[in-house]
Amino acid sequence: MARPPNASRQTRDLLAVLLEQPRSWRHGYELSKETGLKSGTLYPLLIRLSDQGLLDSRWKDSDRPGRPRRHVYRLTSAGLALAREQAELSVSQAGRVARGA
Amino acid sequence: MNATPTLRRRLAQALARHATALLLHHRAEWACAMRAEVHSIEDDGDALRWAFGCVQASYKERLSKLAIYFPGRELLTAIVVTSLFVSLWIYLDSHLVAFAMPGWYAGLAPADPHLSLHLWAFLALGVPEAALAALCGAALSNVVRSATVVTASLALSIWIVTPFAVDMLVNDMSFASYAESLMLFWPDIALRLTLASLAFVLAFRYATKRRSSIAAVN
């Protein structure tokens, strides 16, 4: 059976991290540090979420002079809804596992 | 910041440039985002690891585009055409060439067989090769914007790789004897190569135009 979209562990981890500070703009390196995802995994996920309208992005001036602007990200309202749904699902699954044990 | 970047920093920058170049046509913003991020990372080792990942991500993205462009019907066509081509080559190579020229060819054969156009070989190999080249041209038009760089190399590789591999397998030929046989059939080779290149370029241009017109309508 095909897995539903955005159900991979990596996507759930990324959504969970973005959900922690839903109004903050986060850059890729920071997201990588928090999720443990390498850039080779992170960027395809960001691109896909952005294509699906779940992720908003913009350019932000660097805090350090002479450094280039950085691309920063945060969830859109649809992305937030999905992230919350995924979080609730994870909690309920964890509860079922705990009860089963 | 150091005046002279370290080797790791230079490598990271080179990888970032490569990742950017891979994505520039399709995902310009993401390509710039990756490059900017590499420049923003302070630690050289981290920047290098990040840049490696960016290259990986760029290739993934490019391959996913290819997968979208190769729907089942076209992929099946490519497989069928390739199989027919290889089967035809094996048949001709092991039967006609190994024993004698076919009877109908005798009347067409010119006086000097070393400087002649072998019509049967041209038809048997040139047409499938041209079809393959056209298929590749149409497929590659989605990936590259200019046919000039890839045309010659692609046509050459189509022509050289398949018969070469089959010859080596079927006839247990050495590289030297294969190269020698190439020299004997140079008029066929030149014409087949021209035909394959032409088919490639025409298909490439047609597919590019068609895609542009579809995009304009949408």
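qc> Chain A has four helices and three strands.
qc> done
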